Amino acid sequence: MGKIRNYINYLNWKVKEINNQLRKKLLFTIQNKLISSENITIISEDCIGGAIYQFIGKQYQSPTVGLWISCPDYIKFIKELDNLSNFSFEFENNNNFNYPVGLINGIRIGFQHYNSHKEVIEKWEKRFNRINFNKIFYKIDFRYPWYTQKDIDNWNSMKLSRSIALVNDETIKKFGIIHNCFIINSSQEFNNTKKELFSKFVYWKWFNNNIIELPDFFTRILLKTINLLYK
What we know:
Blueprint: H1 2-34, E1 41-44, H2 48-56, E2 68-69, H3 73-80, E3 90-91, E4 101-104, E5 107-110, H4 117-128, E6 136-141, H5 149-158, E7 163-167, H6 169-175, E8 181-183, H7 190-200, H8 203-209, H9 217-230
Parallel strand pairs: 1-6, 6-7, 7-8
Antiparallel strand pairs: 2-5, 3-4, 4-5
């Protein structure tokens, strides 16, 4: 009986594995049909950038994956991105985190999903070299409480064409006009942001045509289908 039970469990596992493979294959086939752009670089101050890559099934072509960049350093990071390959990391020996934290040209970065300085350097160099400077998409989240009016002004003054600024009603009320803003009224918590962004943002129009818009009825159905496949 034990062998039969083990065999049944193995078959159940195998069926689930095949279903997951087929689901992912269908998901990424749809994503490739929707997104005509290749070699996309997404610059983000938190883990949402990496989550977008995973969602659309594209290779990481950005060094800002699995990390956070403190404010106002992120604005400086965007402005100096072209030159950062000329600088090396200085790691903090003592910090309150159980992961590496380093400075590159004075910009503080927490490598939340990295285990060692060696891993940071290897992945940073590999992904930095993949940056497509002709197709960079910038994401910033002004719902974080540490952003100030000066940060908003700096963001607005850069007038980045391929960019999106996540805001909520409170952000708009407090700061007024924000360049390329997209309203998400959920909390800044990672899973809430990811869920709302993936269900309400027509991301392929952003990547293909630099358009930020809410979905119509049929697009909402498509987004819901994509999200079901992604789970």
